[in-house]
Amino acid sequence: MSRKAKSTLEVTLIYLFLAFMAVIIGYPLLWTVGMSLNPGTSLYSAQLIPDNWSLVHYKWLFTDPSSDYLTWYKNSVIVAVANAFFSVVLTSFVAYAFSRYRFVGRKYGLYAFLLLQMFPAMMAMVAIYVMLNMVNLLDSLIGLTLIYIGGQIPFNAWLVKGYFDTIPKELDEAARIDGAGHLGVFFRIMLPLAKPILGVVALFNFMAPFVDFLLPRIILRNPENFTLALGLFNFISNQFDNNFTRFAAGSILIAVPIAIVYLLSQRFLISGLTAGGTKG
């Protein structure tokens, strides 16, 4: 086989694979959009392209008195913003300490971060429930937010530390010669240069409360405290519930804040993810 024919075959196979993956990803999404536009509520009578499409389910989510969708949306946004902000703050300090300082236990601390990422989150659910119950934070958004923030520190710190390692230490030394202290170096040198990786951390932690179901299911009991994933689950979880089209409409609207944050931070994503994994 000639080199040109081999290259053409490789390109063809790549495009076929991309088309196959696009169908796998796009088909469920198209069904969700189509289902949300169907006027009925049944899953089995829904059509991919409805004959008489309607926005009645979107209107119901925001206007019907029996719908708590706006409350769930507000709760999710509050938890997501708090999770993104405090995760960036705490992760920055932790990663800076491990990247720039040498102290007793540093090596084993990094190993602990790596080890904690190997265990599934399910292993900690019972301990999390008991701990929140002991401090009276069960069934509260504060307790849920604290678990999100603390649970992401090992992964985030390892990622940001790798990015901090790529920043030349000569910049720190030059700043100290000019009279900057430890906090001065951190806020004036490290943080401005680390915007790409911090944007990645903020996006990942902003997304988590919108799509996570298991942790809110264990912690939250009052419907007034539900997040979107948990609240939407109730549309279809009870024996006689048949709100699949409303569930689809609510699911589509989850993507709105995530898409906005992604568009605002997309210039940071590629450089942040690639640079964060270059050194360990």
From TrEMBL:
Topology with respect to the bilayer: Multi-pass membrane protein
GO cellular component: plasma membrane
Protein name: Arabinogalactan ABC transporter permease
CDD domains on file: TM_PBP2 (cd06261)
GO terms classed as biological process: maltodextrin transmembrane transport
Pfam families, A to Z: BPD_transp_1
Domain ABC transmembrane type-1: 73-265
Family recorded in the similarity comment: Belongs to the binding-protein-dependent transport system permease family.
TM stretches of this protein: 12-30, 77-98, 110-132, 138-159, 244-264
Naturally occurring in which organism (per UniProt): Jeotgalibacillus campisalis
Localization: Cell membrane
InterPro entries from the UniProt entry: BP-dep_ABC_trans_perm, MetI-like, MetI-like_sf
GO molecular function: ABC-type maltose transporter activity
Keywords: Cell membrane, Membrane, Sugar transport, Transmembrane, Transmembrane helix, Transport
